[in-house]
Recover the amino acids of this structure.
């Protein structure tokens, strides 16, 4: 069955893998599923046709036959449940991998998003300078805890899982901040994720959207 996902037609990072379709692309590459990509402008994301797929008018979405999904976590979980390669066979290990999916999205990502939002929307506020170090500290606390748990292991719980995929993607949002580099084991963990052939194919495909667009201009 053909799989179709949606992605940004143009993105602030110009295809550096930060927009959330990258997670879905990477998961599909890991399990060896081909897919089509429908590129959307910001205006198209808010039109009724897209709102029928995604109530919040965002990317990514995922369509496969009669199934339409939104929310990158739900999409990754669906792919991981349907295809071998992203969740362990053992049922307890599988549930723990799902816990890491939630940890990435619900525990580690929120303070990172909060910091990004502050930089984007609150720079001119009188309290921005005072609040910013607090936001960094909230992230540092999570990274310290994650680093302690990872230790010298390659992945968070045994072999590579969808939990690692999402955790690496979430940590990549801190590129350029130096916060991940405060923990060499976390920096090496992200580098291991980025070195996976499936990641590299997904990254190249996302980047190609923007290099093609630049070439056409
Ligand atoms: N919880 C949802 C999910 O996980 O799927 C969040 C989806 C979401 O935030 N989508 C963003 C979006 O569609 C794109 S990924 N935004 C448009 C809108 O809300 O109108 C967020 C993102 C985009 C670009 C960068 N970047 O260029 O650095 C980083 C992150």
């Amino acid at each position: 069955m053909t799989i179709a996902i949606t992605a940004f037609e143009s993105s602030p990072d110009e295809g550096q893998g930060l927009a959330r379709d990258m997670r879905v692309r990477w998961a599909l590459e890991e399990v060896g599923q081909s897919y089509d990509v429908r590129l959307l402008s910001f205006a198209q994301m808010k039109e009724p046709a897209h709102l029928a797929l995604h109530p919040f008018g965002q990317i990514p979405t995922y369509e496969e036959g009669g199934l339409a999904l939104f929310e990158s976590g739900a999409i990754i979980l669906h792919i991981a449940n349907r295809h071998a390669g992203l969740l362990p066979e053992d049922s307890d290990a599988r549930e723990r991998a799902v816990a890491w999916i939630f940890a990435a999205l619900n525990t580690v990502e929120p303070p990172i998003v909060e910091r990004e939002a502050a930089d984007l929307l609150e720079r001119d506020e009188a309290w921005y300078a005072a609040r910013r170090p607090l936001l960094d500290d909230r992230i540092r606390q999570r990274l310290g805890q994650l680093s302690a748990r990872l230790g010298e292991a390659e992945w968070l719980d045994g072999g590579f899982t969808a939990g690692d995929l999402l955790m690496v993607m979430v940590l990549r949002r801190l590129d350029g901040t130096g916060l991940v580099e405060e923990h060499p084991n976390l920096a090496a963990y992200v580098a291991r994720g980025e070195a996976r052939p499936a990641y590299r194919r997904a990254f190249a495909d996302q980047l190609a959207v923007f290099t093609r667009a630049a070439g056409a201009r």
Remarks:
- The CA atoms of residues 38 and 190 lie 28 Å apart.
- The first strand starts at residue 3 and ends at 8.
